[in-house]
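Suppose a classmate hands you a notebook page containing two proteins, each written out with its sequence and a corresponding row of structure tokens. How would you begin to make sense of it? This section walks through that situation. The first entry is reproduced here exactly as it would appear on such a page.
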Amino acid sequence: MFSVLPKDCQIVWVTTRGASFWAVNYKITVQPLGEETEQSYFMKVFLHNRGREMVKAEYESTKAWHNVVPGNVANPIGWGELVNKPGRWFLLLEFRDMADEMPPASDFIAVVAAGHKASVSPTGKFGFHLTTFAGDQANDNRWCDTWEAWFTRAMRNTMEAELRVHGPHPELEALSEKILSRVIPRLLRPMETNGRKLRPSLLHGDLWHGNVGAEHGTGVPIIYDCGCFFGQNECA
């Protein structure tokens, strides 16, 4: 952690800022050498057995969203392994003080739309350059030429995960196959045939009200806990 903080800074105090099933959050306040103003950072320590993958994915995802809407996503500072706790991985970001309320829907939607419009897939395809996560569920982000291919694979992975957790379910398995082989092609394929082309947009990947807040004092929408991939913009 100290390797990604300002050089020669002194830690003033550290306090917890909530937790999830697989991470604990902290606010770290430091006093940089030769400066009068303190600086604060947000640190997330992953407790999951896939912590290294998850922290790297969130760092890369946050960086991608910060690049397109910098005022609405905390700047990611760095990530790494805790020296005194091997196997525990941390993510360090700038601290954005958030109020206990949601931003106005119109302001929030405008930020999401701006991110979609400003982003450009580096390959022109659908996917991402590494596996990302929605919670602790991994997204298979290998690049696909079409949105139908990416979405079908994601749905199949979700259905298979459901069966692994709850066991065999003949009705669900029959319905799943029909959705994959009939419903998805009928809904999505027309958008990418006869000269039509979907433009991949950068998506948050885990966008729900628990991953959105309003900055204290300004009301600016803040988006966090990103698990990005490039997809069709209506997926969000």
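The notebook's second entry, a different protein, reads as follows.
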Amino acid sequence: MTSSQPSSLTADEIDDLLYYTRVNEKDELVKTIDELAQKHQCNKDAILEAGIDPETGNSTLHYCAANGLTGLVNRQNVQGSTPLHWASLNGHLTVVKLLTEAGADMWIKNSAGHLAMFEAERADKGEVVQYLLEAGGKEVESLGHEGQPSSEDVQDIDAETSQDGSAAAGADKDNDVTMDEAGPG
């Protein structure tokens, strides 16, 4: 049976966790976390939470953030859920904001096919849903949405329409435009 907290990590175990995080050795970090969780018969999150330098207060999360280890931020569990899924589901808006700012990918679906936003919606976490809608909308706007015209395209169409009115007039016609009518191309 695994507990939610390790009995206690040794100074060397904490050093290993912080070292692998500090030098951006993701594979070694993950391996060490797995080994310590098994050794202490606790879950991996408990190992991460216990990995705090007693002198500086720096934790593995501090170093992950400093090194941009988004692989851990976007790491999926066996159900395919990321930390963002869990923070969203539980309505932790501050954590959701921190995760998205740290590079959490809000478009990852878990094995049930759900985005973090869906999990928040399903759990009736309106503030989180609203934040993710706004953040997702900004992301889509900055990247351009496939199948949708960009804002520049809309401006170009509006400019052409206002110059000669032909686009608006053509839109009212019931007949399709033939190649002859379209002109050279």
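A careful reader of the second entry would note: Residues 91 and 125 are 5 Å apart (CA to CA).
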